[in-house]
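[scheduler] slot 2 assigned
[scheduler] job type: sequence-to-structure, two independent chains
[scheduler] chain ordering preserved from manifest
[runner] begin chain α
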Amino acid sequence: MTNLSTEAEPMEDPLPMPGGDLLVEWVPVEDLSEDPENVRSHSDRNISSLQSSLTRFGQQKPIVVNPDGMVIAGNGTLRAAIQMGVEKVAIVRTQLGAGDARAYAIADNRIAELADWDWEALGGQLQLMEPGQLESLGWENYEVEPLLQVSWTPPEPTGNLGDFMLPASPVKITDVQRDVFSEACEKVRDLEGDSTLSEGECLETICKVYLAGLSGDS
């Protein structure tokens, strides 16, 4: 378990809240606008994942906007909601000045990137989830499969160094590479006459065929 204790003295006052306490509002999406200078891009996969999350979990945190309704944090959420036909979303209006608002928009994205995954803990939680929940996490099946199949129980020592190797992290590929892989998997299933082959089994078959070609085996 992570130790959250620090050497710092407890704060007597709450965190600074420029402009007063946060007030959540439900406003029509047409009253809001994306930041035209947003430094984060949103791929189709990103928007689709946001839509899956909104559909299953609802909007669990408000979008942060400036007093004029321009999004500071949550541009992707607004776009996903509009494409879904949502009429109103929850927002909070920040009173940060233009410079601090711009800095916060970058910090909100960058700081989240600095966290690491505990793959063992993640795998354990994924194994407890229902299929519908797994589909709302932002990962593709081929990324989740290794974590669902791996056993984190250390093997009995046999003198084989491979017994002590940790499972590899999920492979990251681009959307284009993902499309190529999906097409290859479909061809493998057609050739094998088995539509139930998992992506891992398809990948194994593809690798075996490729290696056989390199060695000159027919």
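[runner] end chain α
[runner] begin chain β
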Amino acid sequence: MREEPAAEEDTADAESSSDEIGADQSEDLSEPEAPASTEPTGPSGRTPKEMLTVESTRFVLSFSSSDPGLKAQERCDSQHSNDPQKRNECMKAARSTVKEDVMQFVEGQGRWVWTVSTQRGNTLTPLKKTNFTWGEETKNSVEIQPSKGPKVLIGVPNNYSITIEDAQHGKLTYDAKISE
């Protein structure tokens, strides 16, 4: 009967110190708590890096959710509140100032490539194509280090969109689209 209390003591001690008997139990209990870099971001269970690299996924600009679109909406609404046609022209002009329509993150030949394109109809024209390496990853973001230029922090606020802070335009929001 003396063995049962000793086992309880070992378990209690194992929780406070991994050097004692029962440490394997303590490790098993802590296993579900993964480091921040591997924590899932939402119901899909994907990390930010996994979100960016889903096969055949492109991220398309959501102008209305991005800083330039929100500012343009406010400005165009106040300037042309009584003229829907002029309001639409104002929004169209504002939209034309942001050229970074589509982003894609693809691995090829052992390297990661970040492609930024403009889209006119069904035609994508690359604006920038650069190799990059992955940086620090948290639950809701991941850094990439382009081969030239500063690090870029990509926010992953949910399972279907990303955000990037652009020096010229402010926060740009992109929605995931599966391409063919």
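[runner] end chain β
[qc] chain β: Confidence is low (pLDDT under 50) at residues 1-38.
[scheduler] slot 2 released
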